[in-house]
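pasting for the record
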Amino acid sequence: MDTQTNIRRLVIEDFNSSFPPSKPTPHHSTVKKRRPDLYDFIMKKYNGYRAFLRIAKRKMPRTSRKERAFIKYSSNVSRHYYENCWSNLEELTFMVLVDLGEEDNFIHNCLFPSPSGHFYQIDFFDPFRVLFIEVDGVYHTALPSQRAKDIERDVYLSRYGRVLRLASKDFSDLKEMKNKINEFINGGYIL
């Protein structure tokens, strides 16, 4: 067996010894409380609790009505994004860039090298002025772990240029958002 297979087997055994398969699969919050070390490893290694449960061949825990609504919403948003390659918020941002006459200066979904050797996908990037515009939907604000990653990413990108992060709440007033983007582009707004 290779190392990855051994790690997977040990993690599954550890999980099953803490939470026997004969009992219902615990909610992720229960795992986080009882075994924070195991929970952190699962989240880093498998990019999520549900992904780990699929690999471990465990039944999904019962979800609350609120969680089911979020899963349904995020699935619809993901489907829209992958069918169109643009999120609704990115489309609105692009329309503002068109209004400002900046649409030709920005590249949508540009890949930018990350410190890990992989690439960050930047929502809008102006390579000449080195401006980064990131558009955050509900996913970015709903998950604290994602917010921490966004902050880390902003710090890294700010070494190369200026970063503007637009939250979903910023889109409630498009005129204010247009002013914010315009100030950012012209050097007045720095996050």
